[in-house]
Amino acid sequence: MKRILTGLQPTGVITLGNYVGAIRKMKQLQDEYDSFIFVADMHAITIPQDREQLPKNIRSLVALYLACGIDPKKNTIYIQSENIYHANVSWMLECNSYYGELSRMTQFKDKSRKNANFTVGLLTYPVLMAADIIIYDADYVPVGVDQKQHVELARDIAIRFNKKYGDTFKVPDFYYTDTEVKIMDLQDPTKKMSKSAENPKGVIKLLDDLDDVRKKIMKAATDSEAVVRFDPENKPGVSNLMGIYAALTYKSMEDIEEEFKGQNYGTFKKAVADVVCSELEKIQARYYEILNGKELDRILDEGREKTLAMAKEKYEMMKKKIGLYRG
Ligand code: ATP
Ligand code: LTN
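Above: inputs. Below: predicted complex with L-tryptophanamide.
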């Protein structure tokens, strides 16, 4: 059975973008693949985090995975920082990665531009991500398109290590779907919907109050043409709402255009709000039950023990190949 693996950062409540871009893909694939999903908490500290809030976010993210339908019987679920091998493997990979390739990563360029005093962790972030992936010999990595470049770097690093030290890692691949959607900010549809956006009105979080969700959608930026037509370049707001509607109903853009032919944006937005709220309502109902139950810790303990044993094996193999042992 081929293996898929993904992680999300516990940097706040996850968004509709994270759900469609990553979690829901994992849910759809969990029957066909050996599935690994984790909390990328060490990636989260590449930018400052509140130390009281972070543990709450970590727990909440796991509860959200489960509430979104990630089945603990079909997935290995764990927390990155509970496994010391990720950072150790990452160091060995860092010593086989280049400053040039890391400084060219789009995410690094964006985030370092926002804060001149950025940490080195922001630069080496994709190497830790490569470690997360290749320690477990993952075949495919289901992430949103914004993370594709990092998966390609993980490929390059795996290939380079294999060439230099002999076959050690499986070379991973970005997981492509035919319905790849990048959900954009509702207020500024030229930017991706992001957990850390400054304006909360443009972002739908999975635990948002449903009345607020409805308001945010009804107030989403559109245009003056008053035609529901998919044209991301000239009609980014309407196209984004169509993308959300398509992702949740599995309808094609043509079908959606047909469905709302001759109707105004108010009617269209109401339909989008209805499908979003009905999806979130189900998730929220399960979330609170799971968050307060005992099951969550048992699942995480099991995930930790399983991944520690797997990662240790790879780590020892790497040490031997590199020559890190008593002569
Ligand atoms: P932050 O804003 O804190 O940087 P983020 O919202 O971009 O975070 P991540 O934790 O970096 O979220 O990403 C989690 C997963 O969600 C990744 O696989 C990423 O590709 C995917 N993702 C994030 N935003 C979107 C989006 N707007 N549309 C589709 N997929 C997305
Ligand atoms: N960088 C990813 C989170 C992440 C990840 C990974 C995703 C860390 N390690 C390994 C897939 C595989 C992000 O979504 N921001």
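Strands lie at 3-8, 34-39, 75-79, 140-141, 173-174.
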